[in-house]
Amino acid sequence: MKILCVGFWKTGTKSLSKALTHLGYNVYDYEEQLVNLKTTWNKFFDGTITDKDIYETFKDIDVLIDGPVIVFWEEIYRVFPEAKVILTIRDEDGWWKSWKNMQDDFFAGSYLLRISIMVSPTARKFLHSGVKIFGMAYGFDNSLSPFSMDWNANERLYKMKYRKHNCYVLHTVPEDKRLVHISKEGWEPICKYLDHDVPKIPYPHQNKNASLFKEQMAGPLFKQIIKEFKLIVAFLCVVVIVVLAWWLAK
Fold first, then answer.
1. Residues of the signal sequence (predicted)?
2. Which domains does the chain have, with CATH numbers?
3. Which of 28, 34, 110, 188 is the most exposed place for a label (fewest CB within 10 A)?
């Protein structure tokens, strides 16, 4: 474990993820964490995780960013105290606006999501994990179901949690072991901190205007969800045809 990226969602984490990948690191972003490390995260969730579990799971991963690591970074950092820590931040009002827009867009298009959750085991597990992660990060108990898709848009509470998280990281991690990064600063602070040459390409700008969900639709997780959806729909169609044929033959 070389780098723990502990900034909240919508602080430039997707841009940083792509930047670190370009620098040659083996990056585990939100999707990789939930798909490949679900057993470990479940142990974190229920409180049965051990330092040995943490070491064995993360010893061959270079970077953790986004998702569960935002909540459990301190436990991982205790096991890998030599890991570098990167805290991405942005101005509080801009962060809230971006976070709210992403959540509003996600829940506004929830009809297809509801159907997927009802028929796809992968979609249900993904939603279940997401609810736990956000609940632990923000202190909400958003028990979502396929028939009730909404989120608690309490601006004051979200901003308070955002400030507390950033302050706690700054208080806990020694100054020489951390980098506070703002996306608009680009490559130079990151490359200096990690001792890399500055690439000759522009710094990435991912998830602009909450475009992440469009990008993730092409990823392995959503491909699996779509595959399960198609299989279930095909099965139901066959059942309907068989029942209809039986009824007509009576």
1. none
2. 3-249 (3.40.50.300)
3. 188
pTM for the model:
0.81
Contact 92, 75 (CB under 8 A): no
- Show the tokens assigned to 184: 């608009």
Grade residue 24 by pLDDT with cuts at 50, 70 and 90: very high
Taking residue 132's Cβ as centre, other Cβ atoms within 10 Å add up to 18
- Give the pairing type, strands 84-88 and 63-65: unpaired
> Could you report the per-residue pLDDT of 137-183, keeping only the tens digit for each?
777 665 555 445 566 678 898 899 999 999 999 999 999 999 999 99
**DSSP string covering 100-156, please?**
HHHHHHHHHTHHHHHHHHHH-HHHHHHHHHHHHHHHHHH------BTTB------HH
Output the six-digit token pair for 16.
């940083």
